């Protein structure tokens, strides 16, 4: 975890953005991960086996490479590869969940349900979707930006009035996004947009999408 004085982080600023706009974009310097963590996550994500995805878990049109560490088809399951457990130790612990709790203003135990690496190359994208269509119990999506050099690829979040807000992540930044807000990743114009995405929930049982 990042070497931060948690009492000095302006949680209110990020909480306001999350509660009012459905998303908080937090720069690396105020995020939950250290440079060592980011470097390790980047290495694990580079090594994991990837597949090309044209249709997402919520049925949205996609065009990207995905490497899976934890899936949530019928229930949360760790993917049996050499890297999953090392990655999960970094992204799922008491410090991380406490950090998220302070921003989204939800207390109690959180459960990690899904984790994957997304690589969006030039002219590729993630289509408009709701994360709760993948699992109605998803609370927040957390996005760790790993790619440094790319253009486009905005994290576009649609508001209650149907307008949208574009977020431009930078290396090491941390996005916390409300899973009930529709969103997409716009087409990457140049370079490779690389990010680690994981989902937290208050529930750990079967995926209710299948009930």
Give an overview in words.
The N and C termini lie far apart (37 Å). By secondary structure, this protein is an alpha+beta fold. The model has no long low-confidence stretch (mean pLDDT 94). The chain has a single domain (11-203), classed as q2cbj1_9rhob like domain (Jelly Rolls, Sandwich), CATH 2.60.120. The strands form 2 sheets. Strands 1, 2, 3, 4, 5, 6, 7, 9, 10, 11, 12 and 14 form a 12-stranded antiparallel sheet that branches. Strands 8-13 form a two-stranded antiparallel ribbon. It contains 4 helices and 14 strands.
The backbone outline, from C-alpha atoms, is globular
**Cα Rg:** 16 Å
Low-confidence stretches at least 5 residues in length (pLDDT < 50)? Answer: none
> β content, as a range?
35-45%
How do the SSEs run, as a string of H and E? HEHEEEHHEEEEEEEEEE
The second-level CATH architecture is Sandwich
Give me the CATH fold name: Jelly Rolls
Look at the structure and name the CATH superfamily: q2cbj1_9rhob like domain
Record field, number of beta strands: 14
Residue-averaged pLDDT = 94
**Span from first to last CA?**
37 Å
Number of domains: 1
CATH class, named Mainly Beta
Number of helices: 4
Provide the helix percentage. 10-25%
Largest sheet: 12 strands, antiparallel
Structural class comes to alpha+beta
Short structural summary:
With 211 residues, the chain is of the alpha+beta class.
Topology:
Layout: H1 11-21, E1 23-26, H2 35-47, E2 50-55, E3 61-72, E4 76-78, H3 84-91, H4 94-104, E5 111-120, E6 125-129, E7 138-145, E8 150-152, E9 155-158, E10 164-167, E11 174-178, E12 183-185, E13 188-191, E14 193-201
Antiparallel strand pairs: 1-11, 2-3, 3-4, 3-5, 3-6, 5-14, 6-12, 7-11, 7-14, 8-13, 9-10, 9-12
Helix pairs in contact: 2-3
